[in-house]
Amino acid sequence: MSNLSPTIKSIQDVMRQDAGINGDAQRIEQMVWLLFLKVFDALEEELELTRDAYRSPIPENLRWRNWAADPEGITGDVLLDFVNNELFPKLKSLAADPVRNPRGWVVRGVFEDANNFMKSGQLLRQVINKLAGIDFNRQADRHQFNDLYEKILRDLQSAGNAGEFYTPRAVTQFMVDMVNPQLGERVLDPATGTGGFLVCAIEHLRKQVRNTEHEALLQTSILGVEKKQLPHLLCVTNLMLHGIEVPSNVRHDNTLARPLRDYTPAERVDVVLTNPPFGGIEEPGIEAGFPADVRTKETADLFLVLIKHILKANGRAALVLPDGTLFGEGVKTRIKEQLLTECDLHTIVRLPNGVFAPYTGIKTNLLFFTKGRPTQAIWYYEHPYPPGAKSYNKTKPIRIEEFDVEKAWWGSEADGFAARVENERAWRVSIDAIRAAGFNLDQKNPHAAEAVSHDPDELLRDYARLQAEAQALRDQLKAILAESLGARS
To answer: Is 484 a member of any domain?
Structure first.
């Protein structure tokens, strides 16, 4: 159907008329909880055809087909009263657990912190009727909606802080391709956001599916945790659209709130793919669940400790981290030392500015490591802008084709990446050099011409270093003067 894009746009136009909705993030949240119920109902239609004993976890009068599907159905104050005082309270309090009633568990998790923002029942009915025109049981509609869903996620970038939930598709695709998850492996994103890494992993694994047993294996292989309500809702809907029948393994929770010692060997995973929130500070007490020598309130650092811990022996990880983690000192140094001792951090791909614009201008890196053997050396690869470009932006984002050069250079982990060679973009740094640098992973490209940096973060770092050196000289002079005055007296 070619009318899906105008349908979504017209829905947003209707919402703009409603006094209860303020801004893009609320518009998207409003649209997605409605979409979730419609998608859930469409999947239930399929299950009713294929399973004789299928029973919905949603009470009959609350199912989409029984209150929303009829364009002449309830509207105005009656619709508003139903949504606010019956639909939401009952879905938030569904009696469900992840084992006996996983579908009900998913529904309750989606709605526990969700809100109906709309204040006009007439406008809400208009939105519902427009959504009714999308048929999720038609493969063409579902396929096209997947593309449209990607656009909705990209729109979040301009919706204030909601932009933190979106990692460019090219980056997630490259990371999944290089880690290469295999059917039967458990794949986790401990900070799922809207599910970009998990969707890429599903598409990667589905190419390996040959029969119903393989598909059943895939259904249980995808794991995730997301702290915030809106991205969790987006993620669960996204996974259902990509064929995960019951995404009950994607929890609405804070991964970091669980003490590391509580993880059992059975909970370890084969693959971690994630872009943990950076620049964030965790609430007081969260760090108490981590070993004393690596306690910190900084979110990205805690995720690095968690990922290292939760991987199985020979498990593989790829994650996005900011420059600050690479050169940071103090607790960051201890975390990096432990990572290099317990894991083989074999590759760091250094991304240029603007990959995550407009959400952040912070320079980021892709770290790839395997647990169970110490790092002997780290290979760095400096990802360039495409020819003629000086930055990325919303209209010209990073593209998967740009990673073809890295893919050709990558080689095989089985032979220790023996085929890799240094070039103007790639260089190798030994563990001895990293240790001598105090575990500073911010290693510059030795083949690049020395350029004057205008990066504000880099200029501020240089300024702070010079200030520290100047203060050290002042302290030395004071000590010398004090000593000489003491000797005279």
So the answer is: no
Q: Name the token pair of 37.
A: 């119920």
Residues 420 and 383 in one domain: yes
Q: Encoding tokens for residue 393? A: 């932006």
- Confirm if 318 and 269 have CB atoms less than 8 A apart: no
At 482 the three-state DSSP class reads helix
294 and 396 in a single domain? The answer is yes
Is the whole-model pTM more than 0.90?
no
Helix 102-111 × helix 229-241 angle, to 10°: 140
Q: Give the tokens for residue 88.
A: 């939401």
150-175 confidence digits (pLDDT tens): 667 666 655 544 445 578 889 999 99
- Residue 65 belongs to domain spanning: 4-137
Q: In terms of residues, how long is the chain? A: 489
Quick one: 121 and 179 in the same domain?
no
DSSP string of 67-88?
HTS-TTS--HHHHHHHIIIIIH
**Looking at the 3D structure of the chain, how many domains does it have?**
2
User: Burial of 193 by CB count in 10 Å (0-12 exposed, 13-18 middle, 19+ buried)?
Assistant: buried
Structure tokens at 461: 């770092």
Contacts of residue 56, Cβ cutoff 8 Å, sequence gap at least 6: 44, 63, 103
Instruction: Reply yes or no on whether the pLDDT at 450 is more than 70.
Output: no
On whether both 203 and 285 belong to a single domain, the answer is: yes
Tell me the β-bridge partners of 298.
Answer: 281
The more confidently predicted of residues 449 and 324 is 324
Q: What is the pLDDT of residues 29-84, one digit of tens each?
A: 898 899 899 989 988 998 999 888 899 999 999 999 999 999 999 999 999 999 99
Judge whether 466 lies within some domain. no
- Same domain flag for 195 and 282: yes
Backbone angles phi, psi at 338, to 5 degrees: -65, -40
- 359 and 230 both lie in a single domain: yes
| Residue at 18 is within a domain | yes
Question: If DSSP codes are grouped into helix, strand and coil, which group holds residue 348?
Answer: strand
More confident residue, 385 or 477: 385
Residue 399 and residue 355 in contact, taking contact as beta carbons nearer than 8 Å: no
Closest CA to 192 of 135, 153, 144: 153
- Are 197 and 274 in contact by the 8 Å Cβ rule? The answer is yes
Residues 129 and 147: their CA atoms lie apart, in Å, by 22
Whether residue 463 lies inside any domain: the answer is no
